[in-house]
Design a protein that fits this description.
By secondary structure, the protein is of the alpha+beta class. It has 3 helices and 5 strands; from the N terminus they run αβββαββα. Helix content is 32%, strand content 29%.
Length: 115
């Protein structure tokens, strides 16, 4: 799911089904930090790995659980990404890599559809 399609109700259904997701966060997302992971290497592009609660009325109603928030600076493209995920098993860097792999698949299939 991409930033334009953040649907906390759908994400919570994925959570309840026992699956995991990685989505981009909107820049105006209202949240409060529950826990911060300081064990990250900024040289990899990671800026933040934390657990947050959503504060927006609709978002906290539709996704009432804490959610992982990973802030990553892509050194190649010189752009910042903020990811939301319910996966706490992988490292924050792996969250960014998983999203990048999904993005490559999407851009490849978009290119194939244009031919």
């Amino acid at each position: 799911m991409d930033r334009a399609y953040v649907d906390f109700e759908a994400l919570y259904r994925i959570e309840m089904a026992g699956a995991f997701f990685i989505s981009r966060a909107k820049s105006n997302m209202d949240y409060s930090t529950v826990e911060q992971n300081f064990n990250i290497d900024p040289a990899t592009g990671l800026r933040t790995d934390k657990t947050v609660n959503l504060n927006g009325y609709r978002s906290k109603e539709t996704y009432p659980e804490p959610i992982r928030f990973v802030d990553y600076h892509d050194l190649e493209k010189v752009v910042d990404f903020v990811f939301l995920t319910n996966n706490y098993e992988v490292s924050a860097l792996e969250v960014a890599k998983l999203y990048r792999n999904r993005w490559h698949i999407e851009t490849l299939s978009n290119g194939l559809c244009r031919t």
